[in-house]
Amino acid sequence: MLSEGFLKLLPVYPLIAQQIIDDYHLDSGICIDIGTGPGYMGLELAKITNLEMYFLDLDKKSLQKAKENVAACELDNTVHFIEADVSALPFEDNFADFVVSRGSLWFWKDQVKGVQEIYRVLKKGGIAFIGGGLGRYTPATMRERLKGRRRLVQEKHKDVKFLDESGLRELIKESGLPGCRIVSDEGEGAGTWIEIRK
Ligand SMILES: C[S@@+](CC[C@H](N)C(=O)[O-])C[C@H]1O[C@@H](n2cnc3c(N)ncnc32)[C@H](O)[C@@H]1O
């Protein structure tokens, strides 16, 4: 059974996946979806590419849900399910062509270590897209309807470290990584994603 939060978000994942394909022209190679939860982000990317997908989460139950959702789609892609923490990724250096992580960064105990680990496992020429939000293809009406979810999550999880654009900039600075920029769903000053190019 899906939580209401994920149900409401279902239309958004294919839109973000399409944005990623349009922006980064992915077709094949290795992709890791970090903090995959029920797997929807990686799943939507897999449906429209030949990417070899690694669905990664530190929570066993979420990963089990991701497995079920992926199985239900009968993908042709090669898929893997990895139980791990973003601060200690079980991959060699220069492993992945693309890393996506949606709605998970806020929950990481050590966000600096998390983005540094992502950089480490990216291949040279690889790209990571990390953050949260609805993507720029989500229609304004839907965006408006889904606004306020973040506040609800914040109320539920007091320890969650949501970062606004200046927080993301601070994280980039602290992590000391080159090749980073803020990507916004809605225009200047509303950035909710970090893009990393290695
Ligand atoms: C709000 S859910 C987002 C799920 C999914 N990415 C999406 O957009 O629907 C956040 C997920 O991040 C995972 N997570 C939190 N901290 C993590 C960490 N340090 N390493 C890996 N996964 C983590 C949680 O277990 C949870 O499944």
Would you count the extended β strands for me? 7
The coarse overall form would be globular
Small ligands present: S-adenosylmethionine
* Count of domain modules: 1
The CATH H-level homologous superfamily: Vaccinia Virus protein VP39
Instruction: Show unreliable segments.
Output: none
Task: Return the CATH topology.
Answer: Rossmann fold
CATH level-1 class: Alpha Beta
**What is the average per-residue confidence, as pLDDT, rounded to a whole number?**
92
Count every helix, treating DSSP H or I runs of 4 or more residues as helices: 8
End-to-end span in angstroms?
Answer: 39 Å
Largest sheet: 7 strands, mixed
**DSSP strand content:** 15-25%
Radius of gyration: 16 Å
Written description of the protein model:
By secondary structure, the protein is α/β, with parallel strands linked by helices. It has one domain: Rossmann fold, CATH 3.40.50. It is 39% helix and 23% strand. It has eight helices and seven strands. It has helices at residues 4-9, 12-24, 40-47, 60-73, 111-121, 140-146, 149-156, 165-175, and strands spanning 30-34, 52-57, 79-83, 96-102, 122-131, 180-184, 191-197. The chain has a seven-stranded mixed sheet with strand order 3-2-1-4-5-7-6, sandwiched between helices. A hairpin with a 6-residue loop joins strand 6 and strand 7. The protein is globular and about 35 Å long. The N and C termini lie far apart (39 Å). The model has no long low-confidence stretch (mean pLDDT 92). It binds S-adenosylmethionine. The site of S-adenosylmethionine has 17 residues, from helix 3.
